[in-house]
Specification:
- The chain has 340 residues and is of the alpha/beta class.
- It has nine helices and 13 strands.
- The protein has a seven-stranded mixed sheet with strand order 1-2-3-4-5-6-7. Strands 8-9-10-11-12-13 form a six-stranded mixed sheet, with helices on one face.
- A hairpin with a 2-residue loop joins strand 3 and strand 4.
- The two termini are 42 Å apart.
- The C terminus is likely disordered.
């Protein structure tokens, strides 16, 4: 396919670059370019196999403009593996979740370029580009633990990364949602973390004005009826740990190898009516582009009264200054940049 222009009003242009990723067994991946008043952002630029082709197409599309940003939705190699090349050949600054800032250098990022790989905080951030704003929105656990999507309010496009990904079709726009499920459903049931993560994401993006949902793999969802159909499907999908729980079993041959090993507990089935999951914090849309409902006030139960620990006649209590460090403190002492 040739480059596909998704939006163009003269000063603002959104382009899906010609597919460069169908090489051997490599997974197909989309590279999107947003341009406004001479500045540009490239989304999820890809790995080494497509680097030279995507670089050429990007410069051709930008012309005399400037590539200002590289937006890295998460840490997968089909997104970040070639980031060293991009930072060496352009003046762009790359942004990724703060959780992955220390992991990306393992793809070969030169230490002299590390200052141009910057973190996105968990709540997201705003990019200014040529006088317009683009918004990084949280998409955590969909599928990566540090995951972001990008919303362009001018073009009304939500770039969703791996959410909405589909593999195997020959088209780039979904016209038959039910027929499209065969290319999309299996991926989402395995890769997305759980229905709760999908549901809070759906609540967040329903507040946005979206004409196109553009995933990193496969076909896009164009037009509000198709966009809403996809969001509703995500909100009600059992996936990830919702389906994988029965697989977490100790192999029978290990359990029977010795009588000293405890017998496995009887399988239990989690039920929402008897074991409700703890509610996740709501993913919030920046107030500049939406007006989320006022937060619900909750009242915490008073803390239980601490019971004095029984002391042995021969074993004195450990002094306060020798108490063990909690896991949270241990994690931060080891490396505070890995867990912001």
């Amino acid at each position: 396919m040739a480059d596909i222009v998704l939006f163009d009003n003269g000063s603002h242009r959104n382009v899906l670059l010609e597919d460069s990723s169908s090489i051997g067994s490599a997974v197909q991946a989309n590279q999107h370019l947003i341009m406004h008043n001479g500045e540009a952002m490239l989304l999820d630029p890809g790995g080494h196999k497509v680097y030279s082709q995507v670089l050429t197409k990007t410069f051709s599309a930008i012309g005399q403009g400037k590539l200002r940003y590289l937006f890295l939705s998460h840490q997968d190699p089909d997104i970040v593996a070639a980031v060293n090349g991009w930072l060496m050949t352009t003046d762009a600054t790359a942004y990724i979740s703060a959780l992955w800032e220390r992991f990306v250098p393992h793809f070969g990022l030169d230490h002299l370029l590390e200052h141009r790989l910057l973190p996105i905080p968990d709540e997201g951030m705003t990019f200014e580009m040529g006088g317009e704003k683009l918004y990084a929105l949280p998409g955590h656990f969909l599928h990566s633990v540090g995951n972001f999507q990008l919303y362009d309010p001018v073009a009304k496009i939500l770039y969703t990364g791996d959410l909405g990904a589909a593999l195997g079709m020959e088209y780039f726009e979904v016209t038959d949602f039910d027929g499209h499920l065969q290319y999309m459903e299996g991926f989402h049931r395995r890769y997305m973390t759980c229905k709760q993560a999908m549901s809070v994401w759906a609540d967040m993006v329903r507040k946005l004005d979206i004409d196109i949902i553009a995933p990193q793999h496969g076909a896009m969802f164009k037009g509000k009826p198709m966009v809403n159909r996809f969001i509703d499907w995500c909100a009600n999908l059992d996936c990830g740990i919702d389906l994988m729980t029965p697989l977490f079993k100790t192999p029978a041959e290990i359990m029977s190898a010795t009588s000293e090993v405890a017998q496995p507990a009887e399988d239990t089935q989690f039920a929402e009516d008897t074991q409700p999951a703890e509610q996740a914090d709501e993913m919030l849309v920046p107030p500049a582009i939406a007006h989320p409902a006022a937060p619900i006030e909750t009242q915490s139960a008073p803390p239980a009264e601490a019971q004095p620990a029984e002391q042995s006649d021969t074993q004195p209590a450990a002094p306060a200054d020798t108490q063990p460090v909690t896991p949270a403190k241990w994690s931060r002492r080891r490396d505070s940049k890995l867990w912001p």
